[in-house]
Design goal:
alpha/beta, Hect, E3 ligase catalytic domain fold, binds zinc ion
Length: 562
């Protein structure tokens, strides 16, 4: 089903987002090594068949955990060694000896193991590893359950780990880390610490915390409705929001952290472990849907999303006709934003044989104020909407959204295709560069540079398009505007245009209401309504005219000459 694959896509996006957070955590810990190209890794897994170690993690499990490290760090191991051994004495482990020999021979230089106690089981082996580290024969070691930093301190700590491994073969700290990850993987709280809006029940599961759940859920809704964080924090504080049984004060920062946590959409991030709660704990109740969560991330614009893009709003672009020559007039870019926009926006006819250009009496440049006053006057003159219009709007809104979504999906597909093509071109050129000589080098350098710039803009557009689809999906899923809001919306349109500093909004409203204008003699002489808008409103009597298309001729606007 279309709807299903749509949801899966959001689930994927949510997981990608969680992965991004997890990667950041790893990066902070210094676990992600950017320069691993020269490293040649092998994976080493060991399990004994006798003694206490029998309870240890199985070889396939150890390998799986190591492969996860490999994947996270984007490492390609050249070989996986499996060792089953029964004796605890040194010198018997053939695989271990083979790795050591391979390292001495320079075949490999880095090892991935589950824990230091899997790598070296006695002081002789530990000594060999540390010796090879000191001599630089081993470049680095990675462990699934232990962080090794390759410096003097790290090597010493590793030595201690080896000693510990010998002394306590069921290493306590390791098993507790292992234990807590295991608990988290079942969708449970390893620390018994609840999340906001949730309690931890006796089985360690996260369950809604009654009214606090509902309150925080409303907070998410408010954020989606673009309330400020401060307002939302006030709302929670005034409504007696509790956490872990205690009343707490919710700050903007705290809210911001909550809104960034994919837990509330059902993806639990424990350390760098990503747990899909809907699989791990099927009775878990998400606070928000994946779509709403991603939409919120999009609208709060965190680092994950989305490079800010400067889009100049072209108010009245291709909307205004010159009354003398019937050509499109060009809007001049406002010099400043905010309230002065009305004063500075100008419209001019650039048509070279326009009669207005030869007439000294008629100045060819017109102030945007003229248009604004016309529009505000029109919107404040008492537009009427009724239930019928509202019902039409409901149908139309959904249809438009689906239509728009279809367009965007096609656009997105095409952008992805273009991105793939750009990648292939860059790869071709890089290959060519590898064999190029002389002047060809500079030439290809430039070509690649150009391709990379092109690719970047494609990538940005792809991101924007994806966000637009998210917004539409969010709107499709959300409740439509209520009748009351619908009435208010029309009532307030004039003031919105008059008072808003938001040029995007103003532009949207104007284009929603009007199709185009004609200006002559510094006045708006004709205005054509957007047919979509027209069907919703009963026009005020002054503007009534016959026919499906309404043209308001020669409507004078007060102070138009200013
Ligand atoms: Zn003209």
């Amino acid at each position: 089903m279309e709807d299903n694959s749509q949801l899966n896509d959001y689930k994927r996006q949510l997981l990608e987002y969680a992965k991004f957070l997890a990667d950041n955590k790893l990066r902070e810990k210094g676990k992600v090594d950017e320069e691993n190209t020269k490293r040649v890794y092998v994976i080493y897994a060991r399990k004994s068949t006798k003694g206490k170690d029998r309870q240890e993690r199985s070889i396939p499990d150890q390998i799986a955990d190591c492969q996860k490290v490999v994947k996270d760090l984007k490492i390609r191991p050249v070989r996986i060694f499996k060792e089953k051994e029964s004796a605890k004495t040194s010198g018997k482990r053939s695989m271990f000896s083979e790795i050591i020999q391979g390292i001495k021979d320079g075949k490999y230089n880095s090892i991935i193991a589950w824990h230091p106690d899997r790598l070296a089981r006695n002081m002789k082996e530990a000594g060999e590893i540390i010796d090879l580290l000191d001599r630089g024969k081993i470049v680095t070691l990675k462990f699934a359950t232990y962080t090794f930093i390759r410096d003097a301190n790290g090597i010493m700590t590793l030595g201690i780990q080896f000693v510990l491994a010998k002394q306590y073969s069921d290493n306590l700290s390791a098993s507790s880390t292992r234990g807590s990850v295991h608990i988290a993987k079942e969708g449970k709280s390893p620390t018994w610490r609840p999340k906001y809006g949730y309690v931890v029940n006796e089985l360690r599961c996260f369950r809604p915390d009654g009214n606090n759940f509902t309150l925080l859920q409303s907070a998410f809704k408010m954020a989606l409705d673009k309330y400020g964080l401060e307002k939302i924090a006030d709302y929670l504080n005034q409504n007696d929001f509790h956490y872990a049984g205690k009343k707490i004060r919710v700050s903007k920062q705290k809210l911001s952290t909550i809104f960034q946590d994919p837990f509330y959409a059902g993806v639990y991030l424990y350390g760098s472990e990503i747990i899909d709660l809907r699989i791990a704990d099927p009775t878990f109740q998400s606070m928000v849907t994946e779509i709403d969560f991603m939409e919120l991330r999009h609208s709060l614009k965190d680092a994950y999303s989305f490079r800010k893009r400067e889009v100049k709003v072209q108010l009245f672009n291709k909307m205004v006709y010159c009354g003398y020559c019937n050509h499109i007039m060009s809007p001049g870019t406002p010099q400043s934003s905010g309230k002065s926009k009305n004063r500075y926006l100008t419209l001019r006819c650039n048509y070279k044989s326009c009669p207005s250009r030869f007439d000294k009496e008629i100045k060819k440049e017109v102030r945007g104020k003229v248009l604004f006053e016309y529009i505000i006057n029109f919107l404040n003159s008492g537009l009427k909407v009724d239930k019928k219009a509202y019902n039409a709007y409901l149908v139309e809104a959904k249809e438009t959204l689906f239509e728009k979504r279809g367009e965007l999906v096609l656009k997105h597909k095409s952008l992805c295709r273009q991105l793939g093509e750009a990648d292939r071109n860059i790869e071709l050129k890089s290959n060519a560069l590898a064999n190029a000589r002389g002047e060809l080098i500079d030439k290809i350098n430039k070509q690649i540079e150009g391709l990379i710039i092109e690719r970047k803009s494609l990538e940005e557009e792809e991101g924007t398009t994806k966000n637009e689809i998210t917004t539409i999906d969010h709107n499709i899923k959300s409740d439509a505007m209520s009748y009351e809001n619908f009435l208010n919306f029309f009532k307030n349109l004039g003031n919105m245009v008059k008072n808003s500093d938001d040029q995007y909004l103003v532009n949207k409203v104007i284009r929603m209401v009007f199709l185009n204008f004609e200006i002559k003699d510094k006045k708006v002489t004709k205005a054509r309504l957007n047919p979509m808008f027209e069907q919703y409103v009963k026009l005020p009597s002054v503007l009534q005219s016959r026919g499906a298309r309404i043209r308001t001729e020669d409507l004078r606007v007060p102070n138009a000459a200013l």
